[in-house]
Amino acid sequence: MNCKHILISLAAATLAFSLAGCNKDDYPKIEQGRVIAFNKEAKEVTLLHDSAMDPRNPVYDVLPPALFKLPVDPAETGALPVAGQRLKLDVNKKIVVIFDTATQKIVELPITVVDLQQPVDKDHPLVYDKQTNKAKKFPVVDRDKKTVTIYSDRQKMLCTFSVPDQYLDYPESTWDAGDEVRLTYRTPGQSLRFMNITKTDIYKR
Amino acid sequence: MQWFWRTVPALILFAPGLSLAAGGGGAPMVIVADTRKLDGILAWWGNMYNESHLQFAILTIIIIPVTGVLFGIVADIVMGWIGIDLKTRELAED
Predict the structure, then answer these.
(1) Which domain of life is it from (chain A) (predicted)?
(2) CB 3.0 to 4.6 Å from A149: which of A95, A160, B34, B58, for a disulfide?
(3) How far apart are CA A164 and CA A52, in angstroms?
(4) A57 to each of A155, A202, B22, how far by Cα in Å?
(5) Closest C-alpha among A49, A47, A69, A67 to residue A59
(6) Enclosing domain of residue A45
């Protein structure tokens, strides 16, 4: 067998390998969405599916929420997620979209913007305390002034707004955006590999 | 001398681990490739990464030399077209 034969065999093997795997149904499915609840003890994550499939403009509008168990193998689990129910903040349309845990529905709330700072990067003094080297905690709910202050890293925006009174008693996580996650699964409800997109910086060394 | 042949492979094998420890530890990073919008060979490629890193690594190991050879063959043909003869050699000085 000369070199040519070996190379042709290798190329053929590669082609066969490729064709053998072309059936999409043979591979695990992908789910991506925003975490609205996380049970650390039960290792269960509840997320709202991203129907837009556009990383820059996600749309979380699919109900009911999907419930997945974290992978059995801990090595297949990325950073544990933080849950939050804020799905969208649109200061132009003056709305905030939240997942209402009480009614299990997606609710669009009208807001009145009190203060808006833009652009605000992660290390901006308004959101980052350089003395302690720690990011300031958001959201801030001011029940006296009846306002909520949110920092959106994606939109580079620090926004203070007021919401209808009945929503001020909701937990702080209502105004927080949960982590964005992506997972693979074969059996619905049991993930095989779990990635926390929000907390994974693939460019970090 | 026997210790040498035991120590060197051990150092090579465990050096990455030792380096990680020296650098403050390497947190495990789990990545799931986004194949939701992909189709055909790209979908297959991404799904293979998600399914098995071993299969992905083996295929990469096969593809890299095959691609190299293909590029080499194409380069040979192009050089032949533009008149560079790589198959025979005439000595300039005798």
Answers:
(1) Bacteria
(2) A160
(3) 29
(4) 11, 20, 40
(5) A49
(6) 25-82+178-196
